[in-house]
Automatic annotation (TrEMBL):
PANTHER family: RIBOSOMAL PROTEIN BS6--L-GLUTAMATE LIGASE (PTHR21621:SF7), RIBOSOMAL PROTEIN S6 MODIFICATION PROTEIN (PTHR21621). The lineage of its organism: Bacteria, Pseudomonadati, Bacteroidota, Flavobacteriia, Flavobacteriales. It comes from Pukyongia salina. GO terms for biological process: SOS response; translation. NCBIfam families: rimK_fam. This is 30S ribosomal protein S6--L-glutamate ligase.
Length: 291
């Protein structure tokens, strides 16, 4: 098959791992920079050009769309879907998972437990914070990644100040409860084609509340409980993602799904578990193209 990876970074670990996994299974692999694509509708049908060359031989695409390119990246995925190309992650699921509030709404509709969350859209700051009780509070911009745009407000005045600043700047955000018992850790669970294929526990470094490996966190192997695995599978199904990373907090009231990532990084999970997630993704494509 001809498989393309939509990525602006040909040398990035995840892109390279997917490329090599596809090549090892005798697929023709290509890395396509979304910013060098021209989408068009000609005589009523979608066509795509890459570097002025017509693209018409793709069988499948693996989107690795960065947060800064979400709109145009999702538009490209939608275009490819209209062309009949199998996409590991669809355009709408990418957009829905990227928006933290939309993602939480979908999870709540599917009755999947999530942390208490409020959309920051009112000037009545007191009424929003009253829902959570005493500090600390977590404040997140809607489309941040790798822990960027996540703020820990340890006091009520600092929360009010941060919220008022975001409202004034017209930055969209959510407020979320702080789960103290998680102690700066979370679970990253990779789901491929309706199955959990790998999991790790991430722990924040001392003095940091975010467990992202990009922010100096550490990771270890973990054996999921039935409830944790079930939450991850249900979250992937609710977001309609064949491949995703599900972040889960371990709380006193059970697992709480924190986020669902449509393009999870592969370096940390592959290094920690020794499992080739990239090969699992290529196998997923092969199974779907045979159907």
């Amino acid at each position: 098959m001809n498989i393309a990876i939509l990525s602006r970074g040909e040398g990035l670990y995840s892109t390279r791992s997917l490329f090599l996994a596809g090549e090892s299974r005798n697929h023709v692999m290509e890395v396509i920079d979304p910013n060098r694509c021209t989408q068009a509708i000609v005589e009523g049908r979608p066509v795509l050009y890459y570097n002025d060359e017509l693209v018409e031989d793709l069988h499948a695409v693996i989107p690795r769309i960065g947060a800064s390119n979400t709109y145009f990246g999702a538009a490209l995925v939608r275009h490819l879907q209209a062309m009949g190309v199998f996409c590991v992650a669809g355009a709408e699921p990418i957009l829905q998972s990227r928006n933290k509030w939309t993602c939480n709404q979908i999870l709540a509709h599917a009755k999947i437990p999530v942390p208490r969350t409020v959309l920051g859209m009112t000037v009545d700051v007191d009424s929003m914070l009253e829902i959570f009780g005493d500090p600390p509070y977590i404040i997140k911009i809607l489309q941040g990644t790798h822990g960027h745009g996540v703020i820990l407000a340890e006091t009520y005045p600092s929360a009010v100040s941060t919220i008022e600043t975001l409202l004034t700047a017209k930055v969209r955000f959510v407020i979320q409860e702080f789960i103290a018992e998680s102690k700066g850790s979370d679970l990253r669970v990779i789901v491929v084609d309706g199955k959990v294929v790998a999991a790790m526990k991430r722990q924040s470094q001392e003095g940091e509340f975010r467990s992202n490996l990009h922010r100096g966190g550490s990771s270890d192997l973990v054996e999921l409980t039935y409830a944790e695995e079930n939450s991850a599978l249900r979250a992937a199904k609710a977001l309609r993602l064949g491949v995703c990373g599900v972040d889960i907090l371990q709380s006193e009231r059970g697992p709480l799904v924190l986020e669902v990532n449509s393009t999870p990084g592969l370096e940390g999970i592959e290094t920690t578990t020794g499992i080739s997630i990239a090969s699992k993704i290529i196998s997923y494509i092969e199974r779907n193209k045979r159907r």
